[in-house]
Amino acid sequence: MASPQALNGSAFYEDTGNEFRIPPWADILKAENIQPILVYFVLFRMASFLAKRYTWTEYTGFKQYRLRNLSICFIHSVISATIALTFSVTHLNEVLFNPMHWYQHCWRHGLLFSAAYFLHDTIDMLEFELSKFTAELLLHHFCCVFVFVVTVTSRKFLPYAYCALLMEVNSVTLHLRTLMQLSGTSTQYIRTFRAVQYANIFTFLVFRFCVQVFELHWAIVNISNMHVFFFLVGTIGGITFLIINSCLFLRILASDGFLGDAGRNAAAINRWDGLSRGDRDD
After folding, report:
1. If exposure means fewest CB atoms within 10 Å of the residue's CB, which of 23, 65, 170, 274 is most exposed?
2. What is the CA radius of gyration of the chain?
3. Alpha-carbon distance values, 95 to 52, 86, 98, 163, 169 (Å)
4. In a domain, 273, yes or no
5. What does the pLDDT look like over 113-157, one tens digit per residue?
6. Is residue 12 situated within a structural domain?
7. What sequence ranges are listed for the domain TLC (predicted)?
8. pLDDT (tens digit per residue) in 205-226
9. 2 occurs within a structural domain
10. Residue 15, domain member (yes or no)
């Protein structure tokens, strides 16, 4: 492990030169990294098992699976959003002005926690849902895990990764919105659901699009200060997420009626199509 040299008067700024080298990928298998991932992964599997055994028992088929899956998604998003917001508020200067060099070992757990969740959710989807929507989510999960592994193994860009993790703030309202729709509570609590819809749009714009524009701009401006590999991760990865989120945003607007009936039919997707397992429960 490289010894950090103080930058800007802080021992948490590492001047190791790792930003000019390809990350040592094998470091993710070190006990300090793989053990937390396995622990968090087991916790998510246990939570999923309990959800499938004791929750949403009044529903059947694919709708029941989606409600249970979304419950775990919601739990992850609440925890990850809380961690990301806490980091961003307490380390705002690092996030905005020096997202490359700041590193503190304990903060890697937020990334390992989310990586474990994405691994769990990938297995869950492959087991219960093979649809055209699955490929999009698998691409999203792969990109997230890849970025987190890059950060942990290089010991660089930790504030940058936490800035990206702020997207989970929107995931809280996104998952809550879908849970209310599938469970039928959206028609029982109309005003609450409408508030969730507007909160979802607001947080989508702020914590997804604004964050992505900031990170893409930062990567382009700082191209000369890093290995081309990290630049490509920041730009190609950022553009990939921007495309995924743009498609998702259009589907949300369509589903919530903001684009009219024509928009609803053109942009909305049907996750019932192409299922390989489970009964449909319309």
Report:
1. 274
2. 20
3. 38, 12, 6, 7, 16
4. no
5. 999 999 999 999 999 887 777 888 999 999 999 999 999 999 999
6. no
7. 62-270
8. 999 999 999 999 999 999 999 9
9. no
10. no
